[in-house]
Structure formats: C-alpha cells, structure tokens
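Hey L., structure's done. Input below.
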Amino acid sequence: MSQSIADKAIEAVKAGLLEVQDYVRLSGQTARAVFSRPFYLHDLIEQIDVIGLGSLTVVLLTGFFTGAVLALQSGMTLDQFGARPYVGRLISASMIKELGPVLTALMLAGRVGSGIAAELGSMVVTEQVRALGTDPVRKLVVPRVLAGFIMCPILTVIANAVGLLGGWIIAVSQLRVASSVYWQSVVDGLYPQDLWMGLIKPFFLGFVIVTIGCHVGLRTRGGTQGVGRATTSAVVAASVTVLAVNFFVTRLLMSVLF
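Output:
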C-alpha cells in the first residue's frame, strides 16, 4: 500500500516536472519567434483588441470597487488615529504597488487565460492546428503573448486610475475629506520606486498569463471534455502563478529599487 502511494507520488512529481519543462520550452520558442520572421501583424492587432479592449469593462469595475472599498475600510481604521486626511496616501500606495497589478492580472487570468486555452484546445482536438500549414508557435502563440505583454501594463494603469477615482468618490462623499486634501495625499504617498514597481510587474504577469493559456491549450487532449479540463487548468495555473511571480518580482524589485 505504502509502495503504491510512493509510486503515485513519484509519478505526480515526474508529470509536474515534464509540464514545467514543456512550458519552458514553449516560452523559449516564443521568445525566439518574436525576433524572427514571419510576423503576423494582423493577428497581433486582433489579439490586442480581444485581450485589451475585451477586458476593459471587467478591469474598470474591478479597479473602481477596489479603490472604493479601500477608502471605506482604511477610513474607519485611520479614524482611530485621527488620520482620516491621509486616506489618499494609503489608497495610492496600495493600488499602484500591489492591488492594481495583481487584481488586473487575476481578472485577465480568468478571462484571457481561459479563453486562450479553450480556443487553442478546440483547434487542437479538431485538428485545425495541423491544418495551419505554418508554425503554430508563430501563428497562434506569438501574437497572443505580445498582446498580453503590451496590454497588461496598460490595463493596470487604467485600473490604478479608476481605483484612485473610486477612492476619491468615497473619500469626498462618505468620509467628508476635501477633494484637494485627498489628491494632495495621493501625490505625497507616491515615490518613483512605487511607480516603477507598479509599471514593471504587469509585464511579467501578462507574459505568464498568456503563455500558460497557450501551453495548456496546445496540450489539450480528449475532445470536448479535454477542452473543459484545459480551461479550468489554465485559470487555476495562471492565477496561482500570478501570485507566485508577483512575490518573486516584488522581492527582486525591492532589492534593486529601494
């Protein structure tokens, strides 16, 4: 009995290592294909529209309500110290350094990662990938990866801006903080290192979200049920990886910028 459990554990570890190996190989192939011809510009523009504009609504809502609830919660806490006018400083630091990039990435993992896995998985099980007549990495993966790499930072900036706006509305209407005091507190709470951290992290997060979706989609097996499993796996793997990558990139940036 113990032997069979050990064997299953070993097989699970081997399968996990093989999955990581295949993912790293796909990432390397994608990086090489980005800097060599042919380029599929039309596909890139199409994916920018799908990933960027298609995700704009959910990113706007997420950013707005995150900033609003931060203002509500932090206002109650700061009241204990008589520091309610500093609510803008707390919201700006939280949104731009951490919550903006991470929540935007998690929304993209749920919407974009699952969509890519389902789309590519359907193409694999219906043999459309073999019928392309060209390298699937160049045709299918590279445009999506570049679009995610470009649009994730842009969507993060939008989420940050909307989050600050949501915090301002709550600060003025609920906490009775003057508008000028709020925005001055926002500016005072930001440092160049914070801005750089908030801008650099989304590039890494966008890359891992899209590459995981492509990796899972291209490895889909088992017909329509396999497509469903691939979609779920892509969301779970991308979400967990976003949190892990965020930690390691934050740790790296803190050692470099601070």
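Helices lie at 2-34, 41-51, 56-79, 87-125, 136-173, 179-188, 192-218, 223-257. DSSP finds eight helices and no strands in the chain.

-- N.
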